[in-house]
Amino acid sequence: MGVVEVKAKAVSNDQLVAELEKALFDKVRDRTRHPFVMAVKSGKATKDQIAGWLHQFASWADPTNKLFGVLWSKCPDDDLRQGILENMLEEEYGESSKTAGHMRLIDTTLGELGWTKKRRAKEGLKMESWLLKHWFEVVMRNRPFVEGLSALSFAAERINPLVFGELEKGLRKHYDLSEAAMQSFAVHASDVEEEHGSLAPTAMARYATTAQAQEAVRRAVIHTGDCYYNQYNCWQYY
């Protein structure tokens, strides 16, 4: 990520949040305008490309979801721990959305898109997916709690409802998928995911109060945004 000059003084949490949102919606890392999202919205992506992208998404997201346990164990506050636990239970069992575990929902979608378990077993992580998976492991395991939670909650889950909302619109308009197959996209576009994205600003207000801590959070969030945008490029392999 290179050497970044630390600002002389800490800024307010509202200003930090605004800075990070602006950075994540810069055209170089704005996932809502990624070529894959635009291709789905216009109906130009093939079902195989959509399935390939979704398989890659699941391949890094599933092991990353398991690292919620690491964040939970490092979290110093009861209310944030509760939020992390609720997030983990939703990912594993669909508890908040009253659906199913997110990987089970994705399995249904991939099956309808024509990807069998045998096909998926042959498709390992592409480099872009591996890099994102590896980065999440590093920042969630090895960096301070506020950096790991900010990377996951702010750069990923805070943006996911917007991205998946766009994907859901395109899929419903151009692709003949059942409601069961659409559920994996709908749940990520719902208010459940929005709630998950609210954890980071709270944590930053409490634990990113110095100029040095805020710069570390900036680096973690922006680097996550870069890696996540790059991971979407996997659709081009299919």
3D structure, described in words:
By secondary structure, the protein is mostly helical. It has one domain (13-237): Heme Oxygenase, Chain A (Up-down Bundle), CATH 1.20.910. It is 71% helix and 0% strand. Helix 10 runs antiparallel to helix 11 (179-188). The longest helix has 21 residues, at 211-231.
Distance between the termini: 30 Å
Can you say what the CATH homologous superfamily is? Answer: Heme oxygenase-like
**How large a portion of the residues is in β-strands, by DSSP E?**
under 5%
Mean pLDDT across every amino acid position: 93
Radius of gyration: 18 Å
Structural category: mainly alpha
At CATH level 3, the topology is: Heme Oxygenase, Chain A
In short:
This protein is mainly alpha-helical and 238 residues long. It is 71% helix and 0% strand. The chain has a single domain (13-237), classed as Heme oxygenase-like (Heme Oxygenase, Chain A, Up-down Bundle).
